[in-house]
Specification:
471 residues, alpha+beta, Uridine Diphospho-n-acetylenolpyruvylglucosamine Reductase, domain 2, Uridine Diphospho-n-acetylenolpyruvylglucosamine Reductase, domain 3, 4 domains, seven-stranded antiparallel β-sheet, five-stranded antiparallel β-sheet, 18 strands, globular, binds flavin-adenine dinucleotide
């Protein structure tokens, strides 16, 4: 610590003593990730309020060779925002850098600072009569900077795209402490390399995003939500295809939930009747949004479900009768990540593949996993419309947690091999962080890895931005 006394004093001068956290108690919430799998250490946690303060801190770290770990809401699921155990780390938390700078209704954009919480950004858009469509279960805690850092997906990617698709410009502090500003809100700007796209999804390894200009959309007039029991997993692609053909409204969500995953949140679903008592092996949560009144939207959904029933794709369905019931259906889906906590250690995968291959993948991988170790079960849910599954393995009893932990490597190997056999990716929306870093060079071509390393070296030659993550 003595080694960093002058450094700490300089940080205190830049942002004020109370925003340089030094005690173990103050630092502790910033040093462990959401899943409690990774813990690291840091000289201090710094909480700047402005972009200029961030730039001054980064320039200082560059000069002193101090490693910077950018952190937003700390809800990331790959340990990307958690420091390693190195002794020269500081965490820069963006939580005070949280202003909504501007809402431009004529151009349908808003400019917000990186530490703004996603739900606050959604609310600010709503108050202005617009929709900011990024939506995920962690939206009450995650930040726009973290969403951009991970290129987060969520439940409306099917209609509006992921965070990259929703961002028109960013402001970034580079590893040398310079400020790059592209907050012009242009929808067309082909002026050389897209640096914005390079920073989005770079998980804090190339700089700190301090603000972003985001796209806004008209608010839909109506939404209808339905929970549908599938006859079997092979019906999913047929149902999604039929839904696209039959409905004028936009298909905004198509979420798959296995019967086992649903059972973890069954307490919340007592009022949903037969669909749950029939204990279907697979259900999907479907949502349509429309600029038309609810009546027409609802009639189309009913017609679709009747046809799907006649065609033997589905066995049962409930359509939410009220906004409250729709929220209950969504709450089922969103509670699954936490619903897994009592199961003990789970080995999680965030994978994607062409949706036409998902059913075959699920069947083949289930068999292969049972052969590897029969004492585990699959908990599967995810954004099926985007070909993205959260494919998790839990021990049959929490007592077997240490045994599943011992098998983590071989389970990952098996699941990821299967994913690649079905033309997929081992990281769909959560990123690489620390959790999947070693896997990256094994799954990407040498050319891709070489180019990524060259970019990192060119932009951050001293390797001070989030070292030990991604590459
Ligand atoms: C219950 C739950 C549900 C989730 N559901 C989804 C989901 O549906 N879809 C999905 O994509 N993710 C999901 N996540 C993962 C997580 O919420 C997202 O990755 C989110 O985008 C992280 O935001 P954050 O502010 O918490 O970032 P953090 O966890 O703080 O950071 C994540 C990464 O971004 C970097 N970073 C943070 N801020 C900045 C910045 N200002 N500039 C540069 N880099 C930065 C960090 O260094 C780190 O590498 C879920 C998480 C939980 C706990």
């Amino acid at each position: 610590m003595e080694r960093y006394e002058q450094f700490i004093a300089a940080c205190q001068k830049i942002i004020g003593t109370q925003y340089v956290l030094l005690s173990d108690t103050d630092k502790s919430p910033f040093l462990t990730d959401w899943s409690k799998r990774f813990t690291g250490s840091a000289i201090a946690v710094l909480k700047p309020k402005t972009t200029t303060e961030v730039a001054a801190l980064v320039a200082l770290c560059n000069q002193e060779n101090v490693a910077i770990i950018p952190q937003g809401g700390n809800t990331g699921l790959c340990g990307g925002a958690t420091p390693t155990s190195a002794d020269n780390n500081i965490v820069i938390s963006t939580t005070r850098l949280n202003q909504i700078r501007d809402i431009d209704l004529d151009n349908s954009t808003m400019t917000v600072e990186a530490g703004a919480i996603l739900s606050q950004v959604q609310d600010a858009a709503l108050t202005a009569g617009k929709l900011f469509p990024l939506s995920l279960a962690a939206e009450g805690s995650c930040t726009i900077g973290g969403n951009l850092g991970t290129n987060a997906g969520g439940v409306q990617v099917l209609r509006y795209g992921n965070t990259r698709d929703l961002c028109l410009g960013i402001e970034v502090v580079t590893p040398s402490g310079e400020i790059l500003n592209s907050l012009r809100g242009l929808r067309k700007d082909n002026t050389g390399y897209s640096l914005k796209d390079l920073y989005i999804g770079s998980e804090g390894t190339l700089g700190i995003i301090t603000a972003a200009t985001l796209k806004l959309y008209p608010l839909p007039q109506s939404k209808v939500t339905s929970l549908v029991a599938l006859n079997n997993i092979h019906s999913t692609t047929k149902l999604i295809d039929l839904a696209r053909k039959r409905c004028n409204a936009d298909l905004t969500a198509f979420e798959l939930i296995s019967g086992r995953a649903l059972s973890l949140v069954a307490e919340k679903a007592k009022n949903l009747g037969s669909i749950l008592t029939n204990s279907s092996a697979w259900v999907v949560l479907i949502e349509f949004s429309s600029m038309e009144q609810e009546k027409g939207n609802r009639e189309q959904l009913e017609t679709l479900l009747n046809e799907a029933y006649e065609l033997n794709f589905i066995s049962d369905a409930v359509i939410a009768n009220s906004i409250q019931q729709s929220k209950e259906l969504w709450s089922l889906r969103e509670s699954i990540p936490e619903g897994q906590l009592p199961l003990g250690t789970t080995v999680k995968h965030d994978i994607s593949m062409p949706i036409s291959k998902i059913a075959d993948f699920i069947e083949a991988t289930e068999i292969a996993l049972k052969e590897l170790w029969p004492n585990m079960e699959t908990i599967v849910f995810g954004h099926l419309g985007d070909g993205n599954l959260h494919y998790n393995l839990a021990p049959l009893s929490p007592d077997l947690s240490s045994e599943i932990e011992q098998r983590r490597k071989s389970i990952n190997e098996l699941v990821h091999n299967q994913v690649y056999q079905y033309s997929g990716s081992f990281s769909a929306e959560h990123g690489i962080g620390q959790a999947k870093r070693d896997e990256l060079p094994r799954r990407k071509s040498p050319v891709e890895i070489e180019l990524m390393r060259a970019i990192k070296k060119a932009l951050d030659p001293k390797n001070i931005m989030n070292p030990g993550k991604v590459l």
